[in-house]
Amino acid sequence: MTDVKTPPAEPGTAAEPEAKPLAWPLGLAGVVLVIVGSFLSWSYDSSILGDLSINFYPGGLQILAIILAVVALVLLLAEKGPLTKLGAWLDATAGLRALGVTLTLYMVLVVIAITADSDGLINVNPGAYVSLGGAVLILVSAWMLPLRHLRDMSEARLPAWFEILAIAVLMAAVLFVAAYALGLEDAWSFILCLVFLAALVTVLFRTGSLTWIGHVSQRNRKVLTLSAFLVAFLFPFTQGGSDANMSIATQVLVFAATAMGLNIVVGLAGLLDLGYIAFLGSGAYVAATMSTSAFATVGWKPPFLVVMLIGAGVAATLGLIIGTPTLRVSGDYLAIVTLGFGEIFRFSMFNLDGNNGPNLTNGPNGVPGIPDLEIGGFNFGEVHTVAGIELGRFSNYYFLLLVLTAFVILVFSRLNNSRIGRGWVAIREDEKAAEAMGVNTFGLKLLAFAVGAFLAGLAGTIKAHQDGAVSPDQYIFLESAFLLAAIVLGGMGTIAGVLLGATILKLLPEKLRFFSEYRLLLFGLLLVLMMRFRPEGLVANRRRQLEFHEEDEQLAVEIDDEHLLVEEAK
């Protein structure tokens, strides 16, 4: 059930509903209990959740609980106290309710994690119960406070320097949280960190702060873009030379760059492609066969920049080959054809082994032993020291992939805002209407396939050297499904959404390996929930968001009309 906000009181009428007398004191008591409990021991076993067994010395997860308690205190003071002016803009009560739920969930999971890892509830020390009690008090207090009518946050205008400072603080927080989360090796600790992040995001959304951040980002788009890439650039320097986390980061960037290319086909042009992984594989195989590996089958060894262009060109050619005869069909039929193309590519790589065809790919053995890249005397396989910090092999590839991702984002954004991009959107919305208005639908759909394949081929050439081997088993249908899921989860037709979706779908399986047997079940459940509660994705495209709102308003009008007819019939 959604909360209904109380409309503002008219002059001379009854005031807005007041909170119950005990609501505010209960909330303050809950904040105090959460903080006090976090300074006490949570676990008897020091090897659980990063050692939470020391009194008056909070561990990492205890500090996260303290941060949430401080946020609850700010919301309480915005409801009644010295921050009431802030409360006139923020929906403090709705945010406090969301925070109470997530903080209670956080503490319940802490108790479950300690119980599961130490084989007994007796190993949970009193500090955890004190903090859990405080979280429950915050939750009860929040539901005793009334919801109030608030102003539109888009009207909140602050000095430009303050907005830029807010963006800088936000991006610094993103860098810190990302470094902290990836440094967590325990699965339970990582899950609790995700709950903490979910709590903060939910509070921002429920209070309306996320709307303000969105408007600030639109007004300072260049600052946001530069700060985002600065944070991404600084990320390897926070890992202390750890190759484990940087390996995950490079996989995320490859996945994100490839998904961004697929976003052109699916998100802009609306063409359902279930064999897109073949374009990534074609670029990887071109780089592998032209490398200096002992198993490479092509004698020509051009510079890597030339190899990248050749790999991307081969992928784009395959996109034209598959697109020319099949783009006259659409919908489910196009999905089936592209699915078949992906399987044809994989089996072709199996058969080009010298027995069933020319020896280009070494068949199921693939091309192992691919050496590290060396561009301009810079060897990507060596450890380099910058500002006293060691950057290993995966850090080197990370910077190269970051440049590639920036290029892919630039191509996508320029195409999206061009006449070609508007033509793709028109085809996605109504192909017949677009064709009637003079849009070259076949040519633009073919161009979408070619450009998307070209970008995937670029990513594939770097992936081959990063992985050190290429084999047909790397490019199965499941990988295409994950790419499509990243776009649907993040938000079709958006840049930030696809990057976020790719990060979630690539990072979670690596950090939650004990869920590996249920990975597909969890992904399916996640997508079902997204379709039910947020069909436009985590980061909604403004065009699609307006469409969903218009559909909701039309549905509401139809329901009201039906109710009116029923009343008249009575």
Radius of gyration: 27 Å
Helix fraction bin: 55-70%
Outline type? globular
Largest sheet: 2 strands, antiparallel
Task: Decide which structural class fits the backbone.
Answer: mainly alpha
Give an overview of the whole structure:
This protein is mainly alpha-helical. It has three domains: 2-234, no CATH class; 240-526, ABC transporter involved in vitamin B12 uptake, BtuC (Orthogonal Bundle), CATH 1.10.3470; 540-570, no CATH class. It has helices at 23-38, 60-79, 84-87, 92-118, 126-144, 160-182, 187-207, 209-219, 221-234, 243-268, 277-289, 304-326, 332-351, 393-416, 419-429, 431-436, 441-467, 477-490, 496-511, 519-533, 542-569, and strands spanning 374-375, 378-379, 384-386, 389-391. Helix 1 packs antiparallel against helix 2 (60-79), helix 2 packs parallel to helix 7 and helix 18 crosses helix 19 (496-511). The radius of gyration is 27 Å and the shape is globular. The two termini are 28 Å apart. The model is unreliable at 1-15, 548-553 and 555-559 (pLDDT under 50).
Key traits:
ABC transporter involved in vitamin B12 uptake, BtuC, 570 residues, single chain, mainly alpha, two-stranded antiparallel sheet, disordered N terminus, 66% helix
